[in-house]
């Protein structure tokens, strides 16, 4: 199973001003594409802290590292310089990136969104990439995404604006990941178990997990009294080369859990597929 | 300014099943209490990955490290054993923690939420703490929180259920942090700047930031055309020993930005205090 790690950069994420959306969206996309997302981190707009975060995540040797934020024109957009510093690469003007930035301004001028280009230093800043990096077109914003390979990890750097991140991911990254890692299809089913106390489910869950070691099985704890009223949600997720096999494995695991929980005196609800 | 780091533990956070709420809530509380939250991370329910995350965050020597998740009775609740392993401490039955667990079951039985206690192994598991740790009462759930000091960092471990995390934070942790670090008061003001292109704001922002080095100043990028319609939100946050001083510093910085942006031909909106 290929692995992925994520890094989101921005003071606003750690000040409680903005609730993370990018790590959550990328976790969903990558999981559904069959990756195990092992680590995700958020760091402030500080070159040393960005570099520490990058080096920690790279040290775990994920197949893919996706970073978001800090690509824009303002002085606190430091991600590419921190990446260059962490990997001891020089920053250099990338002519393809410079063309992407200019083309974006051409579009905005043609469509009368703007009456003039941004300042020269800002346009140059967004085209300065670590040496060896490839820019990725940004269909909805100015700053291009960036791709860089490093010691077996493919690093992608994306803007922090969710619409730009999602557009670049969909257009450039998802097709490449599917082609390169071909990880399979992920399916998830859920089952509601009516028990007053999560502790009562501990042994059934453990036994079922041991009988289905390749299926991801997890109960989502809830506070009293919600757990007894609404039930505890148990998720079974499976990865397989076809969707049918993945669904069958998740379903079989929850069928087993239903029998095991009922034998332990618990009542259970219906099994639902939560992914297609 | 005291520093804090955060770690959230749980596969569901990295599978895209649950969108993080705990890191976001803790970031807000700690920022408003005057901490700089430097790093936040999420890791899967895997003892090695939990230990890697803990050791990375501890290596940055924060004053406080807050962890959430993985304290419950099920077999995938691994946080305390991973913490003990990472710090090379034995796990031992803590009698105060055992009493807290039993008292919680007493309350649930008395109030007729339950008709019997949870399984013995589950009650014992929640009372096995790294040697030297102190349990923190959980006003709304079974598993106690945990406090442990390690090489200048105070580590707090909290349940992942948001209601339990927030109750323990409010009852036991916030008063202790305020007493111990007395960091001051944080105030934040926001200003809406109407410009078509964030790049046009780069120089005014840079100049104002240099004139107010102790104030946190940040523009929140928006995609086109939302930026030109709604404006770009700029946040100024300041820490001071009194609320009045913190508000004055944030306000003075945005007054300066308003003048600087207007001189650069941009139109700006009203300044609002976003914290009290």
Strand order of the largest sheet of chain A: 2-1-3-8-7-6
CATH superfamily of the largest domain in chain A: MoaB/Mog-like domain
Number of strands of chain A: 12
Q: What composes the largest sheet of chain A?
A: 6 strands, mixed
From the 3D coordinates, which CATH architecture of the largest domain in chain A would you assign? 3-Layer(aba) Sandwich
Question: Which ranges of chain A are low-confidence, i.e. pLDDT below 50, for 5 or more consecutive residues?
Answer: none
Strand fraction of chain A equals 25-35%
Helices of chain A, by number, come to 10
Taking Cα atoms only, what radius of gyration of chain A do you get, to the nearest Å?
A: 22 Å
Overall average residue pLDDT of chain A: 90
Q: For the terminal residues of chain A, how far apart are their CA atoms?
A: 20 Å
Count of domain modules of chain A: 2
Structural class category of chain A: alpha/beta
Taken in chain order, the helices and strands of chain A follow as: EHHEHEHEHHEEEEHEHEHEHE
CATH class of the largest domain in chain A: Alpha Beta
Largest interface: A-B, 82 and 82 residues
CATH topology call of the largest domain in chain A? Molybdenum Cofactor Biosythetic Enzyme, Chain A
Assembly type of the chains comes to homodimer
The share of residues in helices of chain A is 40-55%
Shape of chain A: elongated
């Amino acid at each position: 199973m290929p692995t992925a790690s994520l890094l989101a950069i921005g003071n606003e994420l750690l000040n409680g001003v903005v609730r993370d959306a990018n790590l959550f969206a990328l976790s969903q996309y990558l999981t559904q594409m069959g990756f195990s997302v092992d680590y995700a981190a958020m760091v402030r707009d500080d070159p040393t802290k960005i570099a520490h975060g990058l080096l920690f995540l790279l040290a775990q040797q994920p197949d893919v590292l996706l970073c978001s934020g800090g690509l824009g024109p303002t002085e606190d957009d430091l991600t590419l310089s921190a990446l260059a510093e962490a990997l001891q690469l020089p920053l250099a003007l990338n002519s393809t990136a410079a063309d992407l930035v200019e083309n974006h301004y051409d579009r905005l001028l043609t469509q009368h969104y703007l009456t003039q280009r941004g300042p020269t230093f800002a346009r140059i800043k967004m085209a300065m990439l670590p040496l060896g990096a490839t820019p990725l077109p940004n269909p909805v914003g100015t700053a291009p995404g960036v791709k860089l390979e490093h010691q077996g990890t493919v690093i992608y750097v994306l803007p922090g604006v969710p619409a730009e991140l999602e557009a670049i991911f969909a257009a450039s990254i998802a097709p490449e990941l599917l082609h390169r890692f071909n990880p399979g299809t992920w399916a998830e089913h859920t089952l509601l178990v009516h028990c007053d106390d999560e502790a009562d489910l501990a042994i059934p869950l453990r036994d079922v997990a041991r009988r289905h070691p390749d299926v991801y099985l997890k109960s989502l704890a809830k506070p009293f009294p919600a757990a007894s009223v609404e039930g505890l949600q148990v998720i079974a997720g499976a990865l397989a080369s076809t969707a049918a096999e993945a669904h069958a494995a998740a379903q079989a695991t929850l069928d087993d859990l239903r029998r095991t929980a009922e034998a332990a005196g618990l009542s259970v609800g219906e099994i639902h597929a939560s992914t297609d």
